Amino acid sequence: MIPLAPARLAEVVGGALRVPAGAAADDLPVVDAPAATDSRAVVPGGLYVARVGEHADGHDFVPAAAAAGAAASLVARPVLAEDGGPVGVQVVVDDVQAAFEALARHHVDALRARGALVVGVTGSAGKTTTKDLLAVLLAEVGPTTATPMSYNGEVGLPLTVLAADEGTRCLVLEMGARGAGHIAALCRVAPPDVAVVLNVGSAHVGEFGSVDAVEAAKGELPEAVGPGGVVVLNADDERVARMAGRTSGTVLPVRAAGSGAGAVVWAQDVDLDAGGRASFRLRSRLSPSAADEGDVPEARVTLRLVGEHHVANAVAAAAVALHAGVPLGRVAEVLSTAGPASRYRMEVTERADGVTVVNDAYNANPESVRAALKALVAMRRGPDGRERRTWAVLGEMLELGATSTDEHDLVGRLAVRLNVSRLVAVGPGARAVHSGAQHEGSWGQEAAHVADAAAALALLRAELLPGDVVLVKSSNAAGLRALGEQLVADAPPAGEPDGEPDGASHGVRGAAAC
Question: Which residue intervals make up region (Disordered) (predicted)?
Answer without folding.
Answer: 490-514
